[in-house]
Amino acid sequence: MCAAPRLWHASPAMIDIPRADPRAGLSCEVGGHLPQKPGTFEVLAREGDARAGRLWTAHGPIDTPCFMPVGTYGAVKGLDPDDLREVGSQIILGNSYHLGHRPGPERVAGLGGLHRMMAWDRPILTDSGGFQVFSLRGLQKLDDAGVAYQTHFDGSRHRMTPESVLRTQAALGSDICMILDHCPPGDADAALMRAAVDRSTRWARQAIALRPEILAPTQLCFGIVQGGTDLALRRAHLAELAALPFDGLALGGLSVGEPIPAMHATLAEIAPQMPAERPRYVMGIGTPFDLLAAVRAGVDMFDCVMPSRHARNGQMFTFAGRLNIRQSRFRDDSTPIDPDCACRACRRHSRAYLRHLHEQNDPLYGRLATIHNLFFFHQWVGALRAAIRQHRFGEVDRLFSSIIAQFYQREPQVTSKPRREPVPAAPPG
Amino acid sequence: MCAAPRLWHASPAMIDIPRADPRAGLSCEVGGHLPQKPGTFEVLAREGDARAGRLWTAHGPIDTPCFMPVGTYGAVKGLDPDDLREVGSQIILGNSYHLGHRPGPERVAGLGGLHRMMAWDRPILTDSGGFQVFSLRGLQKLDDAGVAYQTHFDGSRHRMTPESVLRTQAALGSDICMILDHCPPGDADAALMRAAVDRSTRWARQAIALRPEILAPTQLCFGIVQGGTDLALRRAHLAELAALPFDGLALGGLSVGEPIPAMHATLAEIAPQMPAERPRYVMGIGTPFDLLAAVRAGVDMFDCVMPSRHARNGQMFTFAGRLNIRQSRFRDDSTPIDPDCACRACRRHSRAYLRHLHEQNDPLYGRLATIHNLFFFHQWVGALRAAIRQHRFGEVDRLFSSIIAQFYQREPQVTSKPRREPVPAAPPG
Known about the structure:
- The structure is a homodimer.
- By secondary structure, the first copy, chain A, is of the alpha/beta class.
- Chain A contains 16 helices and 16 strands.
- In chain A, the strands form four sheets. Chain A has an eight-stranded parallel sheet.
- The A-B interface holds A 73-75, 77-81, 102-103, 107, 110-112, 117-119, 331-332, 334, 344, 348-350, 352-353, 356-357, 359-360, 362-364, 366-368 and B 73-75, 77-81, 102-103, 107, 110-112, 117-119, 331-332, 334, 344, 348-350, 352-353, 356-357, 359-360, 362-364, 366-368.
């Protein structure tokens, strides 16, 4: 926290972030627009490759660049819909692997769909569940038509196909559905990477063919580009997927164990080549520094478990770096986590009290900490979005690159870690 | 839940409960009164022994009869101050034993006191911690001056005296402080009961003598009447304590393992004999049926961990009896816990979703369930309070006695259980 004084001078508060009006029916920041057809994507401002826009879904618009909190099981752990609105979430992520088994797609549909079940009336994007199934090492068997697997819940056997993941997401009622892709680990060899790309293309074509029959017309469908950090392979796969009529394209297979510089190089090279008229989504990243790099490369959407998971582990994000609330030096600290932060935790509570709640295993700790970290991520991406709209992104990028890098790039690991919801290595029993 | 239709006809919604205005600075229901000196107690309505009143503290008034949720460690588990306001809590309980060791009275004082630490600006009552120390079987040694004990936290050795508990509560800044008493188990023999009463009287006199020096003039101090279910002993102890200038008197040593009929008989006999011009508090009870019996006997204040602890275990209170949300029959149940309930959980979420959150160990479950149960308890006591004010308590008592008894009296146990925050039997290590 030593460089704090320097950082307060460069706070994102310098950039006026238009706030969403929580009383308005829509989640977006800028009003006065008639609702648009789901899938409509408007680029409102550009600066270099970076862009600010708006994507319309059946549950309203989202302002891009946009950070999406992860609500694996139909809740962002410990937060209710009001908390999510309060921190500024416009869209959240659900996971088809988890929800597909607990409580199950038919059950969610019977409860009126995922939105109704969790009382969240803003957009929801659902992952296909493929990432989770491919992380079940030794418990999955791949073939050309799909992947057979045993769940980590109870070891029961199931099969996932390009069709089944769409059917699950149709039942959940997601606004944005992701197709099944083959996501190899970051250290996979070239042959596996190549095979994964070919398989993912075949599955993508199947998904496009099946979509009209399975998904509602208001449900968007995104393709996923693989290819690891092999730029030629990435470009080839991108060209294949860009030719298909997806509503948006995602970069998968990043932050899965590859070296961080290679991840950033891939982002910088590939993202600007993705179709400009459609939203671009990078799955499962990342640190505040990763988000800056992705926005610079023209990415519009991100999701990451980092803010919520780190919060539960005591790690708090601030613009002066992370702090670990479990440290004993906070025992008598009556200041908030971040004196400049306007979140519920910082407006009211001291570091000492949060530390005390953490020590006592009080679930209030997890809620307040998650609220703080999500607020930080939304503020950060909101500041970048506002900067692009004001044609000040270059200035903000220069100002923050060194500072954010100082605090968030030099993390102990040199290879990226999976930032999406993982599953345990072996099923119970 | 079979008798539900009958019960909806007798819902407390029939009785108009004036709601606190959350925007007002004061917590009480009826405005238009100038703030009164802490300790001022007004009885506003009487019907039989039952009475409705208002007690003023340094942090505003509470409307009596009043239910106080238990926030052992400086939080009602998982709830933040807005949640407590939303469910209708006017005052909460803290525990000096727990807070005295974690995080410690000096630390709480350094953070501005318990109110500031937890950002709760309404009244707080703190227990002396004596009940917890006497529950440390085998780890405490009693003498005339106090009790030596080892904590359940780390086995460290400490001493609790009539003076030390007041000093702890002075540091916490509680609005209502409880004195140290000797609370024997419900099955203690007559000699021990007698000795406990004598010791409690001596300690009460010491507390009264020490109070001006230790407590702030705005901190109220309540005495505690012991004597188990021996009515003669209770009367004798009551007479001794009533002679001392406490701001209010409590009945301790109930719901500590004695037979439930004996507890109710003691309540019915002793409560009406407590000084009428001062608030009456029964510690650590109870079920909705117990509360009705206590209000009928003229008790003004109650605290109990039952609503919050039962919530975490899946037990939900409704006016048609308890339901256990873990049961598989709720798996596809799209109705709220209680269709007539206006709490945050019932307004928005289904039994199926709450069950799903419970299955996934999502902390949002605990928060929503605790909100529901506390809302139920506050609605129930609020309905009794409104009935007394409208001189309809007799009518309501008759209407509900049979129904509430049907659902809440015939519980499996025949002896009462400790309803205050217990401590484990042995320290770690």
